[in-house]
Amino acid sequence: MVVGAATFTTEDRVETQTAHKNQHFKEFTLNYNNILLDPEQGNWWMQFGSGKVLGYWPASLFSYLTDSASMIQWGGEVVNSASDGQHTTTQMGSGHFPEEGFGKASYFRNVQVVDGSNSLRAPKDVETFTEQPNCYDVQTGKNGGWGSYIYYGGPGRNPNCP
Fold first, then answer.
1. Does residue 115 lie in a domain region?
2. What's the domain count of the chain?
3. Which of 72, 94, 117, 155 is the most buried (most CB within 10 A)?
4. Where does 59-160 have alpha helices with state H?
5. What is the DSSP string of 57-85?
6. Are 15 and 25 in contact (CB under 8 A)?
7. Domain containing residue 91
8. Whole-model pTM?
9. What is the band of 17 on the pLDDT scale with cuts at 50, 70, 90?
């Protein structure tokens, strides 16, 4: 039996099913993505949906994650070689900034962690970081319908991100 000493559960919707600037986006949902610690073997397992296992990371890969995790990170990355002196035009998420909100920006919602008593709860002390906020950004929040959520993304190169 796999028991989660540290896990995250998200519902990831990349874009809504509305139209924006004549572009139609399909919505997709990945329900209940989990990373779970097997306390017997010490392996970290990844599963999604209703118990569909994707695979695991062997305990031998980790020296500090034998019992639990002290930090969980969610994130994205765009590599920019800036060989021509300009930022890349590669979009993150839907290509819209977090402040554009629902219907445009990409998001994770219902973000939860499993605490030491094996109970789901909202993450505490969530901090955000971005190196290029004029190119890509991130915002967090909480509300009754979505629980803890994270909006993220951006267009890459734009007039404010040369």
1. yes
2. 1
3. 94
4. none
5. E-GGG-SS-SS--S------------TTS
6. yes
7. 8-62+87-153
8. 0.71
9. very low
